[in-house]
Amino acid sequence: MKEPGKKNNSARPEEWVDLYGDILFRFAYGRTLNPELAEDLVQETFLSALRSKSSFKGSSSLKTWLIAILKNKTIDHFRRVAFEQPAAGFPGDGDPIIDLFDKQGKWITEPTRWEDDPQKLVENDQFWHTVQNCIAGIPDRLAHIFTLRELNEMTTPEITELMDITQQNCWTLLHRARLSMKQCLNVKWFTK
């Protein structure tokens, strides 16, 4: 059996989970920050690949093909969730912009300076757990747009098409999501 990193197009479907399950899970988890959702997306990927294995031509590695399927499954999930959300308003949720500034537009509490090394944070599991908790704490629509942009690295035009929103609305929602995330991370991670 070849290593998963090498071109291994001869692997039988019953070997796929052993060869690529962990890689696909890490890929899905990195984009959703939800272990249960990541597992579901990986399972859907394997089922879809099994159904369409005859269409795999071998021009790329089997791993690359499976990751491409998983990426599409992840985007389909966010698209489905986006259409289940209300088009406007987040009842019961505070407005992160209003919560940060007074009536004169000055900071209520000035942002703290982050002293942590960004490279070390990327490698810190506890930090990612905190990020996941912060994403879970903001309204779903903001969380989805933030995840699509910052974790899935989608462009604004891709997000606007997927979410069926205007570019201006996308920028506004991203701004609100980033403010909410910054506020949450200030409290849960950066405040010593």
Please describe what this structure looks like:
There is one protein chain. The protein is mainly α. It folds into two domains: 13-84, Rna Polymerase Sigma Factor, Chain: A, CATH 1.10.1740; 96-190, Arc Repressor Mutant, subunit A, CATH 1.10.10.10. Helices cover 66% and strands 0% of the residues.
Write a brief structural summary.
It contains nine helices and no strands. It is mostly helical and 192 residues long. It has two domains: 72 residues, Rna Polymerase Sigma Factor, Chain: A (Orthogonal Bundle), CATH 1.10.1740; 95 residues, Arc Repressor Mutant, subunit A.
Keywords:
disordered N terminus, elongated, mainly alpha, 2 domains, 192 residues, Rna Polymerase Sigma Factor, Chain: A
- The number of distinct helices, counting runs of at least 4 residues, comes to 9
Largest sheet: none
Number of strands: 0
**What name is given to the CATH topology of the largest domain?**
Arc Repressor Mutant, subunit A
What is the structural class? mainly alpha
State the separation between the terminal residues, measured CA to CA: 49 Å
Count structural domains: 2
Indicate the overall shape.
elongated
- The level of helicity is 55-70%
Order of helices and strands: HHHHHHHHH
Strand proportion, as a percent range, falls in under 5%
- Highest CATH level, the class of the largest domain: Mainly Alpha
**C-alpha Rg, in Å?**
20 Å
CATH superfamily of the largest domain: Winged helix-like DNA-binding domain superfamily/Winged helix DNA-binding domain
Mean pLDDT: 79
Parts with pLDDT < 50 across at least 5 consecutive residues: 1-6, 87-93
Q: Which CATH architecture of the largest domain is right?
A: Orthogonal Bundle
